[in-house]
Structure formats: C-alpha cells, structure tokens
Amino acid sequence: xxxxxxxxxxxxxxxxxxxxxxxxxxxxxxxxxxxxxxxxxxxxxxxxxxxxxxxxxxxxxxxxxxxxxxxxxxxxxxxxxxxxxxxxxxxxxxxxxxxxxxxxxxxxxxxxxxxxxxxxxxxxxxxxxxxxxxxxxxxxxxxxxxxxxxxxxxxxxxxxxxxxxxxxxxxxxxxxxxxxxxxxxxxxxxxxxxxxxxxxxxxxxxxxxxxxxxxxxxxxxxxxxxxxxxxxxxxxxxxxxxxxxxxxxxxxxxxxxxxxxxxxxxxxxxxxxxxxxxxxxxxxxxxxxxxxxxxxxxxxxxxxxxxxxxxxxxxxxxxxxxxxxxxxxxxxxxxxxxxxxxxxxxxxxxxxxxxxxxxxxxxxxxxxxxxxxxxxxxxxxxxxxxxxxxxxxxxxxxxxxxxxxxxxxxxxxxxxxxxxxxxxxxxxxxxxxxxxxxxxxxxxxxxxxxxxxxxxxxxxxxxxxxxxxxxxxxxxxxxxxxxxxxxxxxxxxxxxxxxxxxxxxxxxxxxxxxxxxxxxxxxxxxxxxxxx
Length: 532
Prior knowledge:
The chain has about 525 residues and is α/β, with parallel strands linked by helices. The protein is about 40% helix and about 10% strand. The strands form five sheets. The chain has a five-stranded parallel β-sheet. A two-stranded antiparallel ribbon has the order 3-4. The chain has a two-stranded antiparallel ribbon with strand order 6-7. A hairpin with a 6-residue loop joins strand 6 (about 150) and strand 7. Helix 2 packs antiparallel against helix 3 (about 40-55) and helix 3 (about 40-55) crosses helix 18. The longest helix has 18 residues, at about 20-35.
C-alpha cells in the first residue's frame, strides 16, 4: 500500500511555513490509510493520531489480538519515526529500558572501557507492551521519560533527553545549515521542552497473576486511556482476508531456471514500492527502507522537471541549463526530522499563536470554558447526605464538602447567582438537580489539574483532525471519557453496583455540556463570578 504521508512530506519544501489546511489533509490521509490496515478500530486510530499531534501518551487496554501493537507500529512506519517496542516482563530492570554500560574497545585509545549504550527508550515512538507486567521500579523509569522528557543514568549522576544517539549527532550538523523546518526551529536535543516522544503503553485487563497495576499517579501521565473493543462482525471477513493474504506474501526462496541467470525473488512484498530508475529500492527491498533512510529522497515533481542531458530539453536535442536550487532544496532534511517538525508546527499553530484554536476557547467562549472547569471541579464533589438544596447562602451548603478544593467548590456553587446572566435561573436549577444525584456518593478522587489541561488540548486536537475551525461542546464531550476515565476514582460500592467512572463522566458532560439551540450565545458569556 503506498505511503501517502511520507510521499507528501517528502515533496513539501522545508524552507516554507506549514499550511494548516494542507496539514489537515495530510492528517486525514494518514488516518484513512491506517484504517485500511487496522480494520474496525477507527476510535483507537483517531486517539493514536491525536496523541502524535499533541506529543502526548496513550494507555491502550484490551484483550490480546485486537491490533493494539499493530496499530502503533503501523503508525510509526507510516510517519517515518524511529520506533521501538519493549515487551515488559516481571524480571526486567530499569537498565533494560534506559541503557547500561557495556565493556567495549574504545575507538580512540583501543583499550577496553565501559561504554554507556542507550536503551530502547531512546526513540521517538515507544511501545510499552503489557506495561503492568513489569515491577514498579521499571515503570518508574518509563514514567520519568514520559513526564520529565529525560533519562537519569543509574551508574552516574547525570541525565539526558531521550534522543537516539544517531538523531542527536545528525541534529548537531543540521542545526548549523537549516535553522528552520516548516516554519519552526529545529529541535534542540538538550531542550526537554522541545523533545517529541510519544509512548503507547498496552495492558491486558483480564490477567492479574504476575502483574503490577499502575498507580494512580502513573496513569495520570497518560493523556488518553483507550479501551479497545472487539471489531464489528462486519469486519471479521476482511480482517481474516487481509492478514492471511499478508502472511502468504512473505518473501520466499527464488526459483533458479535451467539457464544461468541471477537469482531473483519469486514474489515481491505486497508493500514494497514499484522499481524506478531514480534509486528507489527494488521490489525485494523492505517496504520501510524509505522511512528508515536518514535523508529524504528528492520529490518526484522536482526530478521530472529536469530534462536529461542531451535530451530534447530545448527542442534542439542539446542539454538545457538548470537554475540553481536553494540550499534547503538541494540538501533536504531527513524525513524523520520533517515529520517531527510537521507535528511541532501543528502544535504551535493550535496552541502557541495568538489566534490559535485554544486561545479562541479561552477568549471568545468563556462560558464554554467555565462549564469545562465546573466538570473538573464537580469530580471532587462529595455528597454524603443524599439530599441538599443549592442556595446562595454558603452556610446552608452540606458539610460533606470538606477540604481545600471542597471549600472552593462550595463557594463557587454559592455564588452561582450573577445578575443579568442569560438563562441564569435555568443554569442554577440544572446545577441544583445535578449535585443531588446519588452518584456523587461514590466519588473518592477527582481529576488532577493535568486532566483539565489534557482535556482542553485533546478537544482542540479532535476538532483539528475532524476539520473544524473552532472548538465546540461536542468536541469536549467526544474526548471526555478517554481523557478522564483513569483520573477519577470511585468507591468499591460503585463497582459493586456496576457503576464506573465513564458513567459518572457521561452524567456530568451530558448535563453541563449538552447541545443547545443558543449554544454560541450561552458560551460567549462567562458563567462564574470569579477572577481568572
């Protein structure tokens, strides 16, 4: 299957700013092409692509054989990023991930020396397969890379960013020649804020023997927690055909004819590119050769525009003089770095610029932002009385609101009486009815502030991938469960009553973020009488 993402990235000039409309089309092509390989898992594909756009991490939970690892490896191959997969087992050590010292001959002195070898965490895309099978000290090494974007060596007092050594050396040379790519500076290997690394962790929800469940603080570092469901029965036939066909197309020994002839592969790989005289790998070469190449190939359009020497370029059969190309075009940036800059350019446009989609929510839709903040605050709400009435008098609110954040929430609810607020009475009754629901009896732990940040960023990324120019309530609703399900803890009594955190989240967003005929007008007015 042709790789439209890499083909398009290779034809884009690195010395030109990134066009967001073109970026939307490229992301759409990537999602569509992955859906042809990973059948019946559109939801997981969308979250994997969103995590790459955000530079965040995903925890994927599902039964074995539901294409969790295949989806991530397919994504890494299509975007041309360095990919490493680690199978977690109970006897692992942190050095198996971050690296260790090995006895080798020093190239300069020729004497044996202990040389530090980076581990599999030094990659752009990392898959931690069955992360809950490794002990806590190994999980801690993984989580440091996710949260701090650095690797602390155990053998000596120093740390470094998780760039692969080859990428680090290549960046040092390229930063001297090409300071920018797609309108963003080339990343600095020593700047942790600009390191692009996405960790996809998987875990099996049914097996408990020999597992070490992730702590609440650990799961909070994942932006999404995706529960993979079995595909529809309509996809089963296609899944069987595609996978069995791919296995049957594996390279086989060549057939030698009676006449002397060079050995040729009998059947080419199904994903290998067609041969061409421009130095493209032959049909027997691996399909990912282009993605793993350190330097991007020249665009086909640029090659076709050059007539061959002695050809009919000027109509007389004589060679035509070609104009000099800019340095950024003759010395292309590696494809992996173009992909990194592509995603970084999208993030800058979505979050860093003054007219970004995120800034539009904060400045133009304060009512929507207030509703989102209220959802996060209400995840900390504790209703032990079962019956309460919302009043403007702070003293009349229930004693079940305790603690620092409970006091803040109690004050917010008491001040929900802005004069002149459109539909203020209706909103007040809505909140009153919401917090009297018995489901609040099961709340033990609410979302962290990181959950609020990730929810906003995930909603913006979802709107971008969908092709929308603005963020609305439905984008927040669409990602709420995947962003918050692992950040809200309910009691054992809730589990006994078959009530999970997705039910609680759905109840909140359906009440506070429901569609409305006057949605634009309501979201343009701030709801809470508090300072930002």
